[in-house]
Amino acid sequence: MNGIESSHDGMVAPTRKRFVKKERTIEIEDLYTEILNGSRLHLSKAITLLESINETDKNAGQDLLKMLLPKTGNSIRIGITGVPGAGKSTFIEAFGLQLAELGHKVAVLAIDPSSTVTGGSILGDKTRMETLARHKNAFIRPSPSSGTLGGVHRKTRETMLLCEAAGYDIILIETVGVGQSETVVRGMVDFFMLLVLTGAGDELQGMKKGIMELADAIIVHKADGDNLKLAKKTVREYSQLLHFLQPATPGWTTTAMLVSSLQNTGLDQAWETITNFQKEMMASGVWNERRQIQTKDWFHSMIRDRLIDNFFSEKGKKELVTDLEGQLLSGDITVANAVDRIFSND
User: Fold this and answer.
1) Phi then psi for 173, rounded to 5 degrees?
2) Three-state SS at 19
3) C-alpha–C-alpha distance, residues 326 and 245, integer Å
4) Which of 93, 229, 243, 262 is most buried by its number of CB atoms within 10 A?
């Protein structure tokens, strides 16, 4: 006999649920309160907002920064640079730990080279500063350089302000260390330190001359063990050379000193030098004057960034640039003519 006619096997067909994407709400007031209370978690969230390319996040980050501005400016901003291998991260961990143990709140903004694949940080300073990262008075934020001149992320200045609002009175900015383009770092800090190695050779010393003219202190690093004798000789050489260079800061004499992060020697002298610098520059008015100049430079830098962004966002501009690039490579047009074509009214 025939079975029962049915359109299914007797099982109840599942009902499909429609997932509606909810708009993410950003509680600026909560972030504001938690940052002032010293929450590292909420500070990280706020920095992520500033670094985001999402328009909503960017606007929220700027609103938060505006609220926190009255709480900023109460720190010593220290830039640290040097050739790869000079031991910048090792020095920062030892130096930061010593300051944290003294009761200071230390924020480390470590600017890493960007991955060409993901755009993220390559070196990952949190993994290289494990002890400092665990200290209650320390905050480490590795940021990709994102191809910015000097290896400085375009949002580093804003991140620095957030850290100051969170109560961090010492800001250490570690750079990639790629040469004279480190002038970008000089333009956002109060005190600039250059880490050098012993026995680097005359050619390398000449290459560093441009950075030396920007330094308020030169740290001859890894001055321990068998290297100590050579390190002392290097300090004498730098001390003699500094007499022939223009001072990086008016009214301040750049000094060279020995430091061993391995043996924790010379760190006290480095901190004493920085505090003496702050007292003298505040008394002379150079401290506030420099910060005002840096704010104006930051303003003009952001104008240039905005002009570039607006240019490429205009309809047809990217296609026009690509077309002109092809004509340049084929020799059909000169560079000057190509630029004229871009900005012509035709």
Assistant:
1) -110, 110
2) coil
3) 46
4) 93
The C-alpha atoms of residue 178 and residue 167 are separated, in whole angstroms, by 31
Provide the residue type at 11 as one letter: M
Distance CA 9, CA 296 (A): 75
Question: What are the 10-residue block averages of pLDDT along the chain, 346 residues in total?
Answer: 60 57 69 94 92 87 93 94 85 95 94 52 60 93 61 76 95 74 81 84 53 89 90 90 86 94 94 97 95 92 86 88 93 92 77
Q: By C-alpha distance, which of 83, 86, 170, 96 is closest to 130?
A: 96
Task: List own/partner pairs for 312-321 with CB under 8 A and 24 or more apart.
Answer: 317/342
Paired strand residues for 171: 77, 107
Residue 186 and residue 149 in contact, taking contact as beta carbons nearer than 8 Å: no
Partners of 143 in beta bridges: 111
Nearest in space to 128 (alpha carbons), one of 146, 142, 107, 113: 142
Would you say 125 and 174 are in contact if contact means Cβ atoms under 8 Å apart? yes
Distance CA 138, CA 161 (A): 16
